[in-house]
Amino acid sequence: MATSNQDQGLSKYVTLVSSDGFEFVVLREAACISGAIKRMLDPKSAFSEARTGRCTFAEINGIVLEKVAEYFCYHYKNRDREDVPDMDIPPELCLELLMAADYLDT
Amino acid sequence: MFRYFALDCSNTSSVFLYSLYIFATSPPIHATQRPPTPPANFSPPLSASPRVAARHNQRQYFIASLCALTEYFDLFFVSTTTTISTTTTPTSTTSYSRITAAPILDSLLTAYLVPKGSRGLGSWTARSQEHFSFLTPKQTKDLNATTTQRKDESAQPTQSAAKSSSRARCTQWSESAKCEPAAEREPAAAASPKGTSALSGFLSTLPSNTTIMRNQNNARRAAAAAASRPAPQTGEATSNTSEAASEPETTSESESAPARMGETKAQTEKRLKQEAKSIAKIKASRSFKRRRRLQHGVEEDEDDDARAVFLETVAPLPDQTANCAVCEKRFAVTPYTRASKEGGLICPKCAKDLDKEEGPAKRQKRNNTGRRRKVQSDLLDGVYPGIKNLVTLCVETLAKNADDAEELGDLPATMINKVAAILSKKRLVTSETLNIFLRAGSDSLTVYDGAKLSSNDYIRVFQYMPVLKHLRFRNGIQFNNVVMDHLLATTVNLETFSIHGSNLVTDDRWDRFLVEKGSHLKALQVYWTDNYFGNEQLALLEKTSPGLKKLKVSHNQKVTDEGLAHISKLPNLEHITLQIYRQTTSPPYVEILNSVGTNLRTFCLSAVHVIDDSVLNAIHDNCRSLNKFRITDNEALTDAGFVSLFTNWDNPPLTYIDLHKCRLMDARDPSINPENVGLCSLGFEALMHHSGKSLKYLDVASCRHISRDSFSRAFEPGKLYLELEKVNVSFCHGVDDSVVGCIFKTCPNLKILVVFGNFDVRDVRVPKGKILIGVPNAHGIQIEGTEDGVGRVV
């Protein structure tokens, strides 16, 4: 997927890369639910992430990042609804996910 | 040795019957013979359909099996409720509940069949001809042949076996079946007296009179029900009637119309007539013909099929038995019996299984019913309905599984605080769950609900966390003298000590604490201490804790004006929060403000009923860095005082102002307030002018002399209060729809607006993401915004 945003503005998708090399391609709008990612990808910021559309997280492993990506989709899909069932979070992932969520400002 | 064999055939499948036959006809192990081959005409049906399973050759082999088995056992006892002896449909189940083979001695066989619901086991000898009627002469011959065949295969191959015991037995049996009841007793009598005694011994161990009586009772009731109904019930259809229809070659059977227990001859005739009539009707019906055409050719027996249809249509009544539509087991029908989708009935066990399968769906439903309440509760907590953020989801999951957690790892302190708050809200902090918060390296611990902790748990805290600096306990009831003594004996030097509800720490322990550990104290918060912590302790603080920056004494019953004066001697104080139950007056507060007011960042006085404008003036004169300000429940401060406070005040704008219940208390005519007591229009405008820019929290509830115009001016279009997040304007009569609208417009970041008791707020448009609490309408108290800006009643 072309991640450069040289040609007419931003690409629709961004790539999230975990510490163990897993890549998750997510809608830019969905990923920007996270304050941290939003700031990373802000075109005004001139971070390398903003130029390439790739965010590498050295402290989040693939399993946790997958859950994070799932949450982005869940949030994006239900953004206009009020009566939303909570997303299931496996208890064993809970702590790591909490750290990641805190880091990502989600 | 007496051997017996008990067999429960209540759910016998055809395959089982076949295995039984193999077992019964196998030669003894020592006789090395070729394996038994099933007879040529034995075709165990692969289909489990009871319709097929009930074909007569199968019954015949079952009987043969029984005969063979009697060779090895002195006595055997077979209980069955299935379709062994009927040939029609599964619904016309047999009425034989028990087939008992009598005692056998050597070569004598007698089989007794005791119909269910007849005279019972107690009167088994008085059997009648009909008990044996299921054996037609032809079948008897078959039976003989089979047993003989078995004999031939085994060690005695001679034809003289024709005279062998088993043949003799069976012949005798079939003969006895045809003879009169009186003569029938002979085989039993001919059996050895030893065997008879064995049987009676065995019978005495069988279910006692109650069973018999119940059987009799059921039979009687069934008979009565049948007599009063046009058609007989499924469960009642005796095998005899079935036989009569399905095996017309049993001439004697057809002639002597089978009588039901307790039924008169006339009743029987009537019943049979009605049965025949309805069967004829079924035969004539178009749907029946079509069904036959579809199922099989015309060559099959029409009578059989018609009877099957007839029996299917008659549903069993409560207190009768039916076969389960799922497992085909027989069970008693009750009013609670569940019907299957196909029309049959389901036994309790299968119904339970079905319930389990449908369980999740049902539970889902229940979840939805509680949903509304949850949403309402969340709204009151200020949680906007919708998607929770990931942190909240994680923290909630974590709190849900707190029992499984061993430690929280290196989570940031804010997260740990969140987990602790949720656990406490759910009242889950116990001795066990406390452990996850006790982290040796950490210097702070907050327990929002320590009500379930014992004094040992509090002591444990100091043992686990030797470097503890900041300790906060709410509901720390058992934080008593023992714990305090332990704390004094440790090296723990607290900088922050916040204790709530510890009314078991006595004054002398407080003194010791302040003397021994007070020098390190930077913040001391003491709530709800009932009879302890009074003026003496406040006086001690001056000497023991000169570095104190934060002092909070709340819900205190002992402190008086005299004690308050000591606070002014703490030079480093930045935060003062006081809620004293005794009546306190202005002078000590003025004294405090004059001495330490300059650096004060928090000044909160609750329930100060009689302090006057001198306090406000002292604040105006002294405070230069105030950020949080509260004076509540007062009836002496005047509007002029507030105006002078907020006008030309050299203090940066505040972020938190709570002036609720600063109003005139006069019940004679509440609307007249000539002296402008309390926070009124001008004071409010001055407040908004001074602090509006940075204000985050504003509470002016019950300040009912703030006019509508004043609100309109304060929130007029063009002004912008970017920081305001929560506003409480309950019981302010000036607030109406337009004011609420203006507030929403001028406070873009507002989250919660509380308007209890404002009856002019009726129909207001609430922007998305904001919560309006307290609208007095018939549907509820909240209006919550939707995207298009149209208010919606929740």
TrEMBL record, chain A:
Main localization of the protein described in the UniProt heading: nucleus
InterPro entries the record matches: ELC1 (IPR039948), SKP1-like (IPR001232), SKP1/BTB/POZ_sf (IPR011333), Skp1_comp_POZ (IPR016073)
Keyword terms of this UniProt record: Nucleus
A cellular-component GO term for this protein: nucleus
Pfam families for the chain: Skp1_POZ (PF03931)
Domain SKP1 component POZ, chain residue ranges per copy: 13-77
Signal peptide start-end: none
Subcellular localization: Nucleus
Swiss-Prot/TrEMBL GO biological process terms: ubiquitin-dependent protein catabolic process
Family: Belongs to the SKP1 family.
Protein purpose: Essential component of the SCF (SKP1-CUL1-F-box protein) E3 ubiquitin ligase complexes, which mediate the ubiquitination and subsequent proteasomal degradation of target proteins. Controls sulfur metabolite repression, probably by mediating the inactivation or degradation of the metR transcription factor.
Protein name listed in UniProt: Elongin-C
Organism name: Venustampulla echinocandica
Automatic annotation (TrEMBL), chain B:
Basic residues bias (residue ranges): 283-295
Recorded superkingdom: Eukaryota
Domain DNA repair protein rhp7 treble clef as annotated: residue spans: 318-356
GO biological process: SCF-dependent proteasomal ubiquitin-dependent protein catabolic process
Compositional bias segments (type: Polar residues): 136-148, 155-175
Region named Disordered: 135-197, 218-303
Pfam families documented for this protein: LRR_6, zf_Tbcl_Rhp7
UniProt GO cellular component terms: SCF ubiquitin ligase complex
Residue ranges, compositional bias (Basic and acidic residues): 177-187, 262-278
Ranges of compositional bias, category Low complexity: 219-259
Protein name: DNA repair protein rhp7 treble clef domain-containing protein
Protein species of origin: Venustampulla echinocandica
